[in-house]
Amino acid sequence: MSKTPLTVRGAEQLRGELERLKTQERPRIIQAIAEAREHGDLKENAEYHAAREQQSFIEGRIQELEAKLSNAQVIDVSTLPQEGRVVFGVTVMLADEDTGEEKSYQIVGEDEADIKQSLISVQSPIARALIGKEEGEVVEVQTPGGNHAYEILEVRYE
User: Same structural domain for residues 152 and 82?
Assistant: First the structure.
């Protein structure tokens, strides 16, 4: 199985969520189940069934996070040679060739992607078109909204 790329920040966020689930959420749910059991008949106890369902969700999320972290390849872009080439983890400043509008994106792993924060997945059409290109190049990107041409203005290794 191939490794999944993550930025240092993305790996820290997943570890933080895993720690919170294990140290705060899991004990809280165990306590809620214990309290619900004290109310008597478990067949008709809605609090018990809700707590068990929540426990199942949390345990599933814990397993998912542990699997992602064990299969992650954490990439610290600040340690890479800064050659102006677009690679995973860099922040890219682009200029739309048609409108002149400038946009900045950081290329991150799928779990970290959040377009509102300008974090795009390495699997996205824009990122796939940019990977391997250098500052000053013009890149054609085929998106669901049509073809766009972007000039790579700057590549930052942050």
Answer: yes
pTM here?
0.80
Between the alpha carbon of residue 93 and those of residues 31, 64, 70, 112, 157, the distances in Å are 49, 33, 32, 19, 12
Q: Write down the residue that tokens 């972007």 correspond to.
A: 150
Helix H or strand E segment including 62: helix 46-70
Give the residue from 75, 73, 81 showing the smallest Cα distance to 155. Answer: 81
| Owning domain of residue 88 | 77-156
Cα gap 20→26, rounded to integer Å: 9
Give the pairing type, strands 138-143 and 119-121: unpaired
pLDDT 10s digits, 70-104: 999 999 988 888 888 999 999 999 998 888 899 99
